[in-house]
UniProtKB/TrEMBL annotation:
Lineage of source species: Bacteria, Bacillati, Actinomycetota, Actinomycetes, Jiangellales
Protein name: Uncharacterized protein
Organism: Jiangella alba
Length: 172
């Protein structure tokens, strides 16, 4: 099954399983080997003619209220999905122009780095950008992700094409 098919299957299951009044519009579902992240849009509070500080506080309040009022049902639904998919489930919301992700999985990743790469990480630690090599490496990955979105999107599309060609080939 391709990754797009798997995302579609999970999104469909969630659409049928979630209460209709939780989210506006379609869900955003992102998966990797360990985790499924589900993000839905919730209604933004009416904040016409208010300061940016008041608007920010209203959005924070709306997100907090949603998180608390849906906690038990989200846990129940996540457990069902975790059992079906064998992945952890994380939740998030978009509200106004803000995205907030709730508790998420932090998966350890082991790598071997030569001295020049370790020196990059140590420089980030020494400069106070990160508290540890692990945090510095995560910072580097976020930086590459932010600056390489188009390249990574092209790579993911190419991988999807490879999966399709592989699936169309003879079965062993």
């Amino acid at each position: 099954m391709s990754k797009d098919d798997e995302v579609g299957r999970i999104r469909g299951w969630l659409t049928g399983r979630l209460p209709d009044d939780w989210f506006e519009g379609p869900l955003e579902v992102t998966i990797d080997r360990e985790e499924i992240t589900v993000v839905g849009r919730i209604a933004a509070p009416a904040t016409d003619d208010v300061s940016d500080v008041e608007r920010d506080a209203a959005v924070s309040g709306r997100i907090g209220a949603f998180r608390e009022s849906t906690r038990e049902r989200r846990i129940e639904i996540a457990r069902e999905l975790e059992h079906r998919s064998r992945r952890k489930v994380a939740w998030g919301v978009d509200c106004g122009d803000r995205r907030e992700l709730f508790t998420r999985l932090a998966a350890p990743v082991m790598t071997r780095l030569r001295q020049p790469e370790r020196q990059v990480l140590d420089t980030l630690v020494d400069a106070g950008v990160a508290r540890s090599r692990s945090e510095a490496l995560a910072w580097c990955v976020r930086l590459v992700s932010t600056n390489a979105d188009e390249w990574l999107a092209d790579l993911r599309q190419a991988l999807t094409h490879v999966e399709e060609v592989r699936a169309a080939g003879p079965t062993p």
